[in-house]
């Protein structure tokens, strides 16, 4: 099992929140096997305040910016699919080239999510020393983003090591699923990460929270509207994005009650 798939199995517990009551949770709730080197109590002795620090800090942040929870969840996904869950998406570029954040699929990640992860790293390293990886902090942020937006709580195995290098632009593009892909392509994209169709469906439920920029879907509205789009849905999207270069934003899932009432569209 790769480290990216192992980390994502924890995230599958998100499915009760993502898919509502329509999916049996039996398989998703089974305790996944741990990757060698990871354990639930990895920081129990050397940083016992780790998980409380993250949860309480995020609780405070989300009280004024609920939307950034979605940003944190997405950062973990974009970290894990490129080189595994190694924190490489957090790295700034270097003389060797721009970092992963400069690659097109990452341009719509929320800048504030990175600021929050950095602030948590500073707080945790002040309290415990530089012994907790940014990859672990990112995974815990994703878990707490799910929990604090009304999803299930789940345990996250810890002990990831941060990567020292980031992926190139081409490798980043090649590893992150393209937003215009059809289902067969997404199935094979996930299979390359050792994730199956059930994983794809459950994890796609990550879109129960968050937002999309017009740029991610105007290709289905212009120059010709995709005839398979439901008419009212397409009309609403056209109002949000009246041209193919509109800068608008829309909620990804307008029917998720918690999100439609508390949605914030901040950066
Ligand atoms: C199946 C392949 C996937 C594709 C093609 C995809 C694509 C996208 C796109 C195009 C957006 C909108 C970006 C924008 O325009 O701002 C988005 C947002 C989002 N995605 Fe995915 N995604 C995928 C899987 C996932 C997974 C596995 C997760 C996490 C479990 C996830 C979590 C999110 C979240 C939370 C947002 C909202 C971010 C925000 O509000 O800042 N996505 N995704």
TrEMBL record:
<feature type="binding site">
    <location>
        <position position="256"/>
    </location>
    <ligand>
        <name>Ca(2+) 2</name>
    </ligand>
</feature>
<feature type="active site" description="Proton acceptor">
    <location>
        <position position="78"/>
    </location>
</feature>
<dbReference type="GO" id="GO:0020037">
    <property type="term" value="F:heme binding"/>
</dbReference>
<feature type="binding site">
    <location>
        <position position="100"/>
    </location>
    <ligand>
        <name>Ca(2+) 1</name>
    </ligand>
</feature>
<feature type="binding site">
    <location>
        <position position="253"/>
    </location>
    <ligand>
        <name>Ca(2+) 2</name>
    </ligand>
</feature>
<keyword id="KW-0325">Glycoprotein</keyword>
<feature type="binding site">
    <location>
        <position position="79"/>
    </location>
    <ligand>
        <name>Ca(2+) 1</name>
    </ligand>
</feature>
<dbReference type="InterPro" id="IPR033905">
    <property type="entry name" value="Secretory_peroxidase"/>
</dbReference>
<feature type="domain" description="Plant heme peroxidase family profile">
    <location>
        <begin position="37"/>
        <end position="257"/>
    </location>
</feature>
<keyword id="KW-0732">Signal</keyword>
<keyword id="KW-0408">Iron</keyword>
<dbReference type="GO" id="GO:0140825">
    <property type="term" value="F:lactoperoxidase activity"/>
</dbReference>
<dbReference type="InterPro" id="IPR002016">
    <property type="entry name" value="Haem_peroxidase"/>
</dbReference>
<dbReference type="Pfam" id="PF00141">
    <property type="entry name" value="peroxidase"/>
</dbReference>
<keyword id="KW-0560">Oxidoreductase</keyword>
<feature type="binding site" description="axial binding residue">
    <location>
        <position position="207"/>
    </location>
    <ligand>
        <name>heme b</name>
    </ligand>
</feature>
<feature type="disulfide bond">
    <location>
        <begin position="214"/>
        <end position="241"/>
    </location>
</feature>
<comment type="similarity">
    <text>Belongs to the peroxidase family. Ascorbate peroxidase subfamily.</text>
</comment>
<feature type="disulfide bond">
    <location>
        <begin position="47"/>
        <end position="128"/>
    </location>
</feature>
<feature type="site" description="Transition state stabilizer">
    <location>
        <position position="74"/>
    </location>
</feature>
<dbReference type="InterPro" id="IPR019794">
    <property type="entry name" value="Peroxidases_AS"/>
</dbReference>
<dbReference type="InterPro" id="IPR019793">
    <property type="entry name" value="Peroxidases_heam-ligand_BS"/>
</dbReference>
<feature type="binding site">
    <location>
        <position position="177"/>
    </location>
    <ligand>
        <name>substrate</name>
    </ligand>
</feature>
<dbReference type="InterPro" id="IPR010255">
    <property type="entry name" value="Haem_peroxidase_sf"/>
</dbReference>
<keyword id="KW-0349">Heme</keyword>
<feature type="binding site">
    <location>
        <position position="84"/>
    </location>
    <ligand>
        <name>Ca(2+) 1</name>
    </ligand>
</feature>
<feature type="signal peptide">
    <location>
        <begin position="1"/>
        <end position="28"/>
    </location>
</feature>
<dbReference type="GO" id="GO:0046872">
    <property type="term" value="F:metal ion binding"/>
</dbReference>
<keyword id="KW-1015">Disulfide bond</keyword>
<dbReference type="GO" id="GO:0042744">
    <property type="term" value="P:hydrogen peroxide catabolic process"/>
</dbReference>
<keyword id="KW-0106">Calcium</keyword>
<feature type="binding site">
    <location>
        <position position="86"/>
    </location>
    <ligand>
        <name>Ca(2+) 1</name>
    </ligand>
</feature>
<feature type="disulfide bond">
    <location>
        <begin position="80"/>
        <end position="85"/>
    </location>
</feature>
<feature type="binding site">
    <location>
        <position position="82"/>
    </location>
    <ligand>
        <name>Ca(2+) 1</name>
    </ligand>
</feature>
<feature type="binding site">
    <location>
        <position position="88"/>
    </location>
    <ligand>
        <name>Ca(2+) 1</name>
    </ligand>
</feature>
<keyword id="KW-0479">Metal-binding</keyword>
<protein>
    <recommendedName>
        <fullName>Plant heme peroxidase family profile domain-containing protein</fullName>
    </recommendedName>
</protein>
<keyword id="KW-0575">Peroxidase</keyword>
<dbReference type="InterPro" id="IPR000823">
    <property type="entry name" value="Peroxidase_pln"/>
</dbReference>
<dbReference type="GO" id="GO:0006979">
    <property type="term" value="P:response to oxidative stress"/>
</dbReference>
């Amino acid at each position: 099992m790769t480290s990216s798939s192992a980390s994502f199995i924890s995230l599958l517990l998100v499915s009760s929140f993502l898919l509502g009551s329509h999916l049996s949770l039996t398989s998703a709730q089974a305790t996944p096997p741990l990757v060698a080197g990871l354990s639930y109590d990895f920081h129990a002795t050397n940083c016992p305040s780790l998980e409380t620090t993250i949860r309480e800090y995020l609780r405070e942040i989300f009280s004024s910016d609920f939307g950034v929870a979605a940003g944190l969840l997405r950062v973990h996904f974009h970290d894990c699919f490129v080189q595994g869950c190694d924190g490489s998406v957090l790295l700034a570029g270097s003389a060797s080239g721009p970092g992963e954040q400069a690659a097109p699929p990452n341009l719509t990640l929320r800048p504030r999510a990175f600021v929050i992860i950095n602030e948590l790293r500073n707080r945790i390293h002040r309290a415990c020393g530089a012994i907790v990886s940014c990859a672990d902090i990112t995974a815990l942020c994703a878990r707490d983003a799910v929990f604090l937006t009304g999803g299930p709580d789940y345990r996250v195995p810890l002990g990831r090591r941060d990567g020292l290098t980031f992926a190139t632009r081409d490798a980043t593009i090649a590893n992150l699923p393209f937003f215009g892909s059809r289902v067969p392509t997404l199935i094979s994209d996930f299979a390359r990460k050792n994730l199956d169709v059930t994983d794809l469906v459950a994890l796609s439920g990550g879109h129960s929270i968050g937002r999309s920029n017009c740029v991610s879907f105007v290709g289905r509205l212009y120059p010709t509207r995709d005839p398979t789009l439901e008419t009212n849905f397409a009309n609403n999207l056209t109002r949000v994005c009246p041209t193919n270069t509109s800068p608008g934003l829309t909620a990804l899932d307008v029917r998720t009650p918690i999100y439609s009432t508390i949605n914030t569209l901040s950066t």
